Amino acid sequence: MNNDVQNIKKLIINEPFKLDCGKIIKDFPIAYETYGNLNKKKNNAILVFHALTGDQFVTNINPITKREGWWTTAVGPGKAIDTNKFFVICANVLGGCMGSFGPKEINPENNKIFGTSFPVITIKDIVKAQKYLIDNLGIKKLLAIAGGSMGGMQVLQFISLYPDIAHAAIPIACSASHSAQNIALNELGRQAIMADPNWKKENVTPNKGLAVARMAAHITYLSKKGLQEKFGRKLQDEGSLKFSFDADFQIESYLRYQGANFVDRFDANSYLYITRAMDYFDLEKQFNGNLSLAFKDTKSKFCVISFSSDWLYPTVENKEIVIALNACGANVGFVEINSDRGHDSFLLNVPKFLKTLNEFINTTYNEVNNEKRI
Amino acid sequence: MNNDVQNIKKLIINEPFKLDCGKIIKDFPIAYETYGNLNKKKNNAILVFHALTGDQFVTNINPITKREGWWTTAVGPGKAIDTNKFFVICANVLGGCMGSFGPKEINPENNKIFGTSFPVITIKDIVKAQKYLIDNLGIKKLLAIAGGSMGGMQVLQFISLYPDIAHAAIPIACSASHSAQNIALNELGRQAIMADPNWKKENVTPNKGLAVARMAAHITYLSKKGLQEKFGRKLQDEGSLKFSFDADFQIESYLRYQGANFVDRFDANSYLYITRAMDYFDLEKQFNGNLSLAFKDTKSKFCVISFSSDWLYPTVENKEIVIALNACGANVGFVEINSDRGHDSFLLNVPKFLKTLNEFINTTYNEVNNEKRI
């Protein structure tokens, strides 16, 4: 880790914070980043939630990884979420590995890395920690909250806990609870990590297992059609097959690259904890089987967005959210964006998606400033 | 390995056999099993091809694993493929681990297990070896050839090499070439095996890696809907979550079982070689981009069968075979069976599927015996 880590913004939460698992933590950091400026009325703030392997560095160059922020397509000056106009906030999730309290941090009790002695956390824990951040920034009401995949789950959990926290809520490509298939896919990743003999050892990291987990996940982020169009059966070396186990096909080489590239920037235990939080998420169960009760007190406008080729969080699961919102008379719009790029579409340059995001947020902002909405 | 291995039927292929990779092998075994009796006319033989992790023990109790044969639902006395009436033959594929020549066998040159020094084999190599078996059994023309998944690929390859070998051909839940997604999924399994430090070591086996590969594959064999209906979010222990990385959900426990159970009966290197053969399979490419040329000389009747919820070899890919068969004027029927049980449907008790199989084979047999077909 380089010196840039010193410059990461952190909020230290001092008071005792009771986790869903029953354990109490305190004096722990939540790392965050902001983009743009908070206006005088403090009514232009947008809280963005990151997905499984994201972090607080939404746009520009991530100072730690030196790579582009994960939502550079959507967030920045003049972009769909315009940082010339809006104040964008994003926090690294609890359990993460980019400065927030997570299994990579040092346990002050024994001066060792927490690893699997870190408590199991939930999406509810994750968003409750972020509420401290919003309070600390002096923001009473956010203009909008938005996120895709696990970020969308956080949108749903956040608004159900704090019904009056945001004028607009945008859950993208997500679900109100993980399906059996999604639990299975996460468990596959966890098993790959836990199968690595370097897991739980000191001074070594289970990079091979983590790479396999990432490869598995990466396949699920893309659609069958998208993969076929991009890679098909194209060979690495033009011409003939190698008759070996080297990467013959471009798709193999691409996957290996995705795996190898990931281990430099992500902690294997964070991968375990965050996937666990996703699997545990079940908003319907929190409200005794009636999902619409999760939204009954909110006056937020919702824009639920799904992608046609997303098989990880298919449209039908996003529609369950829309059904529940309608059932409690919430103000809800729903858009299914046609895209062959699978679940990853929310991170990519998909013009109709970005236009939807842009117009929904701008309209909300205009309404708020015209005091049509309080 | 117990004494039962001694009783495995084997054909030793003595003559030099040139593999697609260029290497020549000879004096190698092809293990096989037969069920029922060959009639005097020798016109009641059905060659069944197994899938990735199958073997020659189609029905009854597998004498080695002591488990039920992989196609007990379809093959046996009075079943869809009636062994009171038909003579069913199945060979363990080249590269397999149930007695046929594969990476688990001893290399006579150094008295060590071949492992990754075994040559890379193809679906074409696999079916060519089985042609020796049919010849050896004195069968000039098979009543039918049938197989699902990789077994279906073998059906297609076999009939394209030997257009006059069978009256009927039944490729089930397969494809004429592996899609990018399927290559990716196989590569994931291979990477899981190759990530295991026990891989390529002597006297140990990469069981953890192989178990992860099996878990990954198992997810792809079931449909999202099927998994949801069977497992949903059901917990292992009624009541509350454990807040740990133990198996909380039934689907996790099920997957772990599938992984652990598999390593006892399958060789990790066979998994590498056979998935490689599947990925290399591209019948269209063999015929310079015109799949229908693969079938132009055959007079076989075809029955192509797909399953509605199979996302590994979806109906659209099975239909490509039907289109190619129609394009060359072949006699072809196509059935998409409605089933929520995903790719695995071909192994399960899906009545409409079994009825289709049964009636197609019986009709063919009646035609052959009435000499409507020569």
In short:
The first copy, chain A, is an alpha/beta fold.
Extended strand count of chain A: 14
Number of helical stretches of at least 4 residues of chain A: 10
Largest contact between protein chains? A-B, 58 and 58 residues
CATH topology of the largest domain in chain A: Rossmann fold
Task: Supply the CATH architecture of the largest domain in chain A.
Answer: 3-Layer(aba) Sandwich
CATH superfamily of the largest domain in chain A: Alpha/Beta hydrolase fold, catalytic domain
Stretches of chain A where pLDDT falls below 50 for ≥5 residues?
none
**Largest beta sheet: strand ordering of chain A:** 1-4-8-5-11-12-13-14
Shape of chain A: globular
Q: What oligomerization state is this entry in?
A: homodimer
Report, as a whole number of angstroms, the end-to-end distance of chain A: 45 Å
Percent strand of chain A equals: 15-25%
Mean pLDDT metric of chain A: 96
Largest sheet of chain A: 8 strands, mixed
Name the helicity range of chain A: 25-40%
Indicate the CATH class of the largest domain in chain A. Answer: Alpha Beta
What is the number of domains of chain A?
2
Q: List SSEs of chain A in N-to-C order.
A: EEEEEEEEEEHEHEHHHHHHEHEH
Radius of gyration of chain A: 20 Å
Structure class of chain A: alpha/beta
